[in-house]
């Protein structure tokens, strides 16, 4: 049971990724070691697993939680508010579950690119970036070179996702094709839902204020419903595909 719990939270050897030292975790998350220790002292991060010589080892769950904390900070939440948010999360969430929470939080971030330097870009990415890395991030429309030198315009809501995709063994063309599919269907769903809500409001009262109020109340629910529905549909497709492959073998 302990091993299962470790794998689920992404902190043990069964998590599927090498364990990280506190220095490696901080570098990957784009924060300082002092910040990691501070969050740990406030209970925002679960304790690390103790390895040889009682050296703390961190896993994907810690990395995902740090990314979620950063996203909440971008939304303007105070540390006390972040603590309350994290305390309300169910126990035993996996790194994947935390990534979904971060995606939901990021959906409220203003859709605006920010000017940044190469140094700041790498700090946010939590790693050094090669020219090939920058070219791939630019191909994913996550950043663009801004004038001469090392200036960039970066989409802060997508940067961490793009950096994670850099390590995925998949061709950039496949990533771009997947992005095109997602955008196409997301826009279609948004149009249909907007029409549905507009028709609903107009049958009751043709009031712009009422439409905005309904949108404000429904948007978080719709985003969560879309993420959940997509996740389940993707899992079903993958199970079907692997099942077919096993049967063929």
UniProtKB/TrEMBL annotation:
One Pfam match: MerR_1
Keyword entries, A-Z: DNA-binding
Keyword DNA-binding belongs to the record: yes
Gene3D superfamilies in the cross-refs: 1.10.1660.10
InterPro entries: DNA-bd_dom_put_sf, MerR-type_HTH_dom, MerR_fam
Domain of life (superkingdom): Bacteria
Annotated ranges, domain HTH merR-type: 19-88
Tagged with keyword DNA-binding: yes
Protein name: MerR family transcriptional regulator
């Amino acid at each position: 049971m302990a091993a299962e719990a470790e794998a689920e939270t992404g902190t043990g050897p069964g998590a599927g990724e090498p364990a990280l030292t506190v220095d490696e975790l901080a570098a990957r998350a784009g924060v300082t070691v002092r910040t990691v220790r501070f969050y740990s002292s406030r209970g925002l991060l679960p304790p690390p697993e103790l390895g040889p010589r009682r050296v703390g080892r961190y896993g994907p769950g810690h990395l995902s939680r740090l990314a979620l904390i950063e996203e909440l900070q971008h939304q303007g939440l105070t540390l006390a508010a972040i603590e309350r948010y994290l305390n309300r999360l169910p126990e035993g969430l996996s790194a994947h579950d935390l990534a979904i929470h971060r995606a939901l939080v990021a959906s409220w971030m203003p859709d605006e690119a920010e000017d940044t330097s190469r140094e700041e870009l790498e700090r946010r990415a939590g790693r050094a970036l090669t020219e090939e890395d920058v070219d791939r991030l630019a191909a994913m429309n996550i950043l663009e070179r801004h004038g001469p030198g090392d200036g960039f315009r970066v989409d802060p809501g997508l940067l961490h996702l793009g950096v994670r995709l850099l390590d995925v063994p998949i061709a950039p063309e496949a990533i771009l094709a997947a992005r095109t599919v997602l955008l196409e269907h997301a826009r279609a769903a948004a149009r249909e839902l907007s029409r549905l809500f507009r028709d609903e409001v107009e049958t009751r009262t043709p009031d712009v204020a009422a439409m905005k109020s309904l949108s404000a109340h429904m948007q978080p629910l719709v985003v969560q419903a879309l993420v959940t529905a997509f996740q389940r549909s993707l899992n079903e497709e993958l199970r079907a595909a692997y099942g077919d492959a096993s049967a063929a073998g």
